[in-house]
Amino acid sequence: MVEKHVVVICAAVGALALAAAVLGIIGEATKSRSFVRYDGVNCVYRRTPAFDCGIAAAASLLTGQAILTAATGCWDGCRQRRSSSDHGRVGGYFASILSWFLTILSTCAFLAGALRNDSAERRPKEGVASYYQCTVLVAGVFAGASFLSIAAAAVGIASYVATEGAASTVVSPSAELRVVLGQPQQL
């Protein structure tokens, strides 16, 4: 049976990742109208809703990852540790590192997309085959970040569940002492 706090944390992290993914899809849909005009020297861009969506999605994803890391650290640190050859725990730590890597990639993509949708004046890019050589954000930045955010949350939740499962199988020292002292526990 899964402990209640594991279900609550997994649901919270899943909801935050889903929120990040939805915000990313909304950002992808609203980014297309950032270029306004060319004033003869600079390309003038206006802020789109994609800016706010990108910032909120990055914050949501980082919050979920921080919750997972804090929960794993707290409940794992409060328990007796098994030998370092425990495969479930090692796999959980590897998955946690992979989850953080995916989170960082996704956050960078969300923030890059957000910054390209902020109001600004930018110099035209040389060698760009576009109108006045003014660039716009390519399609798929927010969508890719949304996919990575779901993947990061899934790997992070799997890591948390694996670490919790490995930690819950630890036998307490008092149970071992009772058996050694001739006082077996009743199951």
TrEMBL record:
Keywords: Membrane, Signal, Transmembrane, Transmembrane helix. It is found in: Endomembrane system. It is a multi-pass membrane protein. GO terms for cellular component: endomembrane system. The chain crosses the membrane at residues 6-29, 93-115, 136-162. It comes from the Eukaryota. InterPro entries: DEAL/Modifying_wall_lignin1/2 (IPR009606), DESIGUAL (IPR052222). Belongs to the DESIGUAL family. This is Uncharacterized protein. It comes from Triticum turgidum subsp. durum.
